[in-house]
Amino acid sequence: MTSSQTHRTIDAIWRIESPKLIAGLTRMVRDVGLAEDLAQDALVIALQRWPESGIPDNPGAWLMTAAKRRAIDLLRRNKLRDEKYAEMAQTTELYTEDDLERNMDGEIGDDLLRLIFMTCHPVLSQDARVALTLRLLCGLTTDEIARSFLTAESTIAQRIVRAKRTLSSRKVPFEVPEGEELQERLSAVLEVIYLMFNEGYSATTGDHWLRPLLCQEALRLGRVLAEIAPEEPEVHGLVALMEIQSSRFKTRVSASGEPVLLMDQNRAQWDRLLIRRGLAALERCRKLGRPLGPYALQAAISACHAQAPAAADTDWARIAALYEALSRVAPSPIVELNRAVAISMAFGPAFGLQLVDELMHEPALTEYHLLPSVRGDLLAKLGRMDEARSEFERAAAMTRNRREQQLLLKRAAECGGSAN
Amino acid sequence: MRFMMIVKATTDSEAGVLPSPELIEAMHRYNEELARAGVLLGGDGLHPSSSAIRISYPEPGGKPKVVDGPFTEAKEMIAGYTLIEVKSREEAIEWALRMPDPHGFGQGQIELRQVFEVEDLTDNPEAIAKENALRQQLEEQRKA
After folding, report:
1. B63-105 pLDDT per residue, tens
2. B127 near A CB under 8 A
3. 30-69 in chain A: CB under 8 A from chain B
4. Do residues A168 and A143 lie in contact, with contact meaning Cβ atoms separated by under 8 Å?
5. CATH number among 3.40.50.200, 3.30.70.1060, 3.40.50.300, 3.40.50.1000, domain B2-143
6. Between chains, do A209 and B124 touch, taking CB under 8 Å as contact?
7. Within 10 A of A137 (CB to CB), how many other CB atoms are there?
8. Which of 1.10.10.10, 3.10.450.50, 2.60.120.510, 3.20.20.370 is the CATH number of A108-173+183-216?
9. Best exposed site among A115, A336, A388, B126 by fewest CB in 10 Å?
10. What transmembrane ranges does the database entry give (chain B) (predicted)?
């Protein structure tokens, strides 16, 4: 093996081992920043030694031992210093050698779970949660994170340093929350993962090819979470949603870069493996026998589309019912608008229009171009062309996306004979 | 990127001999490890070639020839596969190295093959160059 090959192999080992390593070390030293430093130190030692000695049989255990030795060194140095400055002793001794020994064993899964609850803790800003999670749980470099968010590397590096400092200064515990707090904190974790996924999925700047890393990482993290927290239905719900959405990744954009709507996508190109995985995740969620939460309901809606062999086969009545359930657990005007669309598809445009009309004065939707766009579509289907045209024109004036604007103006023109 | 870890057939697997309980247990632990790392997409074990069918086209444009198994040359056949999703070729190799020796008896062999995907995004230098240019442009916009 050449030395550059060895380095690439070490990178791969780091990616596999670092989350477990950092999680285990955090449990020992109770400080995530220090834990990451120790893990990094172990990596540096490996980078020096392995090119000559060869890669050990169990590289994970090797790295853990090296990191633990560093922790003990550090502890002894602190102790020495403490003896010199006795007055500081109380404040610096965070952990003892006994702690290190005692804490060596323990369920890796539990540690990872504790770590993710830490990196997604509400004391951190949403941006900081995402960056820190990508860094510590996905093993991405700051450069990779910066690239995914089209930000400067220094910005991300600072964000991560500050996040670690906040966790330490606010004394955020390394634990899985219990009781009522668990559900609340779990939603925060799922939110971070879904945010990561959406950031990757809805590339708004047009550069579709660079975001998939985020989608892949979010999906991978979701799958990990499903293994370490298998009793939580919404975890499986979120995984199902991401698997099914990912199955359409390749068909969402045409060869010329135009977005392709769900109903117009080439279903033969949907990734059957991911659909199957998504449906299986949804099944795992249902088997837990608790009411479906917002992620599971969205996944179930997504599954209806995935299971329809052709757009015309879509079970709109079921989708409408699922939207209704969703509007009960997570009410929002946008969910209502989607429900209206599903109802119009299932029972005819007149029923949909009735619901849309009720949304016309909804303050949250006054800037939302899809409202007049949907209304225009329903009016056109009902043959009310003049009204349809003015709705399409209104929608076109509201959207900032040029391609969408062209599409809406085209639809307005198709409504025929206008004075302006 | 996706990789298929193909486990080659052996005289035992072809004879329908089940792996030892220890190996089954080790494989189970390994699959669990893959799942817990979020890299496992799927996998299956295959029946021996005694129940297989081979379809070949000996003449271009001619009729297919259908032959029933079993087939000889165990090493040319596969006994199972595991599909994983990883970030690099090295990561795939690392995972494959952690798979337990599939059959023991000196015949164990795993072949690692990358799965074709429409866009191989992670290591595409052209995409990275394009994206760097875009990033620079955005930085400049921010400064302006």
Report:
1. 999 999 898 876 688 999 999 999 999 999 999 999 998 876 7
2. yes
3. none
4. no
5. 3.30.70.1060
6. yes
7. 26
8. 1.10.10.10
9. B126
10. none
What per-residue confidence (pLDDT) applies to A26? 92
Q: How many CB atoms lie within 10 A of CB A315?
A: 16
Question: Which of A13, A150, A156 best probes binding to B when mutated, by most B CB atoms within 10 angstroms?
Answer: A150
Q: Which of A13, A152, A222 sits opposite B139 (nearest CB)?
A: A152
The CA distance from B5 to B41, in Å, is: 11
Beta bridge partner(s), residue B66: B55
Task: State the pLDDT at residue A202.
Answer: 64
Measure Cα distances from A92 to A25, A76, A78, A98, A395 in Å: 18, 12, 7, 16, 62
Q: Is any Cβ of chain B less than 8 angstroms from the Cβ of A9?
A: yes
* Chain-chain contact of A205 with B87 (C-beta, under 8 angstroms): no
- Pairing type for strands B78-85 and B2-8 reads antiparallel
Please give the residue of chain B at the shortest CA–CA distance from A269: B118
- Other beta carbons within 10 Å of A101: 12
Average pLDDT over all residues of chain A = 88
ipTM over 0.90: no
Residue ranges of B 8-47 with Cβ closer than 8 A to chain A: 32, 35-42
Q: Write out pLDDT tens, residues A315-352.
A: 999 999 999 999 999 999 999 999 999 999 999 999 99
Tell me the sheet residues that pair with B54: B67
- Give the domain ranges of chain A: 4-106, 108-173+183-216, 230-303, 367-420
Q: Rounded mean pLDDT of A137-147?
A: 89
Chain centre distance of CA A393: 35
Task: Please indicate whether, in this complex, the C-beta atoms of A9 and B134 are within 8 angstroms of each other.
Answer: no
pLDDT at A154: 94
Q: What pTM did the predictor assign?
A: 0.85
CA distances from A77 to A82, A210, A402, B8 (A): 8, 45, 62, 53
